[in-house]
Write a structure and sequence with these properties.
17 helices; about 475 residues; globular; mainly alpha; two-stranded antiparallel ribbon
């Protein structure tokens, strides 16, 4: 939660003060420092005080720096990647974000397989030290390419101006409402609630805020997705711990099981990007971003339905770990359709002055989702299989809420100006509104097709090595 919450700081520094490049560079050094602290303090004898060896302060300091570092660069790296593409290359952005997610999961897959082996065969200090070294190398490579990047300067404190515009809008709407019942005040209705801010701020700034708030509205149900997805790295591991993990004569460690998630992502990202989406486009029905996200939520709910069935039978007797495979496959489909598409939405639909900040808000939904899990688990006290059923139903509630939001959402063209190349591009252009019945139809087909199979992620948050690789 701390890592995803600190993404707000990274987004603010990037958009308002330092710019994307400097934010990534400086915060990466904090990330390296935190990883180094973990590695050094894990060496036997380093933290010895008297006759006792205490590791707690090294872990506390190291993890705090790592949380600040990883959270600080998360919202900035993806937006910095998008900034390298001009208006004529905007059609490449969906593929780029798929490849970005592919690279994240490649690192996560390597770390999940290697770290348990390294810490067992060598030591914890080596298990922490190798990611620190790789991250340092990655930061150095990033620094060496500084003259080849397209860099946009920071735009000033968008947070203050945005809050002030919201204040003016609310005050203006209240005055308009009260004027209806007052004979001494003239009644002046406005087209939108933010129009009073036009008296103080340029129209472009007000339009940017409108666009940002529209994107943030789409994010409202997203914490429910993360509340389910992130349990694959906790509750699903506990489930695997009680299962027979022998595969072809080799017993898997329970904390190695989540490695299947990034492995499936590596397989499915090209399948979705180059296969399924392209095929649907050729058939004349390309799934739009909000449609993909809605269908992904259904997949996620179904995966937890599968987990509930597995848990129910596991409570009756031993089961092979193979029975967990369907829920991982279905969850992976949901992850690609929600998480990858969400990255794309957060970048392409946000104004250029707020891209990192909006990306930070997208990442903040992960922290909110984690908090929801803690809240539900502590308050509900349900048997595990019933808890999985509850979260599956909760995701479907989020799905229908998402439909209501998607019905009113209007897409806007990406304002990816680079070297003033987009001066002739139309601003705030809109596509046709999303037709919710298309989502329902697509979701029904996906749900029915995934049922026989049942009979996330951000992998980079699970291990330090993933960002370095």
């Amino acid at each position: 939660m701390a890592a995803y919450s600190s993404s707000l700081l990274g987004g603010y520094l990037s958009d308002s003060i330092l710019g994307k490049y400097k934010t990534i560079l400086y915060v990466s050094l904090i990330y390296v420092l935190g990883s180094t602290v973990l590695a050094v303090t894990a060496i036997p004898g380093v933290t010895t005080v008297g006759d006792q060896e205490t590791h707690w302060w090294g872990v506390a300091v190291g993890l705090s720096l790592v949380a600040l570092g990883t959270g600080g660069i998360k919202p900035v790296v993806s937006t910095f990647v998008g900034d390298q593409f001009g208006p004529s290359q905007a059609h490449l952005l969906p593929t780029i974000f798929h490849m970005f997610y592919f690279c994240i999961n490649l690192g996560a897959f390597a770390s999940m397989l290697m770290n348990p082996i390294i810490r067992t065969q060598l030591s914890y200090s080596v298990a922490f030290g190798l990611p620190a070294f790789l991250l340092l190398v990655a930061t150095l490579i990033f620094f060496l390419g500084r003259n080849k990047y397209s860099m946009r300067p920071p735009t000033g404190s968008v947070v203050y101006t945005s809050l002030d515009m919201i204040r003016l809008g609310i005050v203006g709407r209240c005055r308009t409402f009260l004027s209806r019942f007052s004979n001494s005040v003239a009644y002046h209705p406005t087209a939108t609630w933010l129009d009073p801010a036009l008296k103080k701020y340029p129209k472009q700034m007000v339009d940017d805020l409108r666009a940002a708030l529209s994107v943030l509205t789409v994010f409202i149900p997203i914490p429910l997705f993360w509340a389910l997805y992130d349990q694959s790295a906790s509750r699903w591991i506990f489930q695997a711990r009680n299962m027979d993990r022998h595969i072809w004569g080799y017993e898997l460690e329970s904390d190695q099981i989540p490695a299947i998630s990034p492995l499936l992502v590596l397989l499915f990202v090209p399948l979705f990007d180059r296969g399924i989406y392209k095929l649907l486009a050729k058939c004349g029905c390309p799934p739009r971003p909000l449609q993909r996200m809605a269908i992904g939520m259904v997949f996620t709910a179904v995966s937890f339905g599968c987990a509930a069935v597995v848990q129910f039978y596991l409570d009756q007797g031993p089961l092979s770990i193979v029975w967990q495979l369907p829920q991982w496959v279905i969850l992976c489909c949901g992850e690609i359709m929600v998480s990858v598409t969400g990255l794309e939405m957060a970048y392409t639909q946000s104004p250029k002055s707020m891209k990192s900040l909006i990306m930070a808000m997208w990442l903040l939904t992960v922290a909110i989702g984690n908090f929801l899990v803690v809240l539900v688990v502590e308050l509900a006290k349900l048997p595990q299989w019933q808890e999985f059923v509850f979260f599956s139903g909760l995701m479907m509630v989020g799905f229908f809420l998402f439909l209501l939001i998607a019905w009113r959402y209007e897409y806007r063209l990406e304002e990816n100006d680079k070297d003033d190349d987009d001066k002739d591009q139309p601003k705030n252009s809109e596509f046709d509104p999303l037709v919710a019945k298309d989502i329902v139809a697509s979701s029904s087909e996906s749900s029915s097709s995934s049922t026989p199979a049942g009979g996330d992620g951000d992998g980079e948050s699970d291990a330090i090595m993933s960002s370095a690789v």
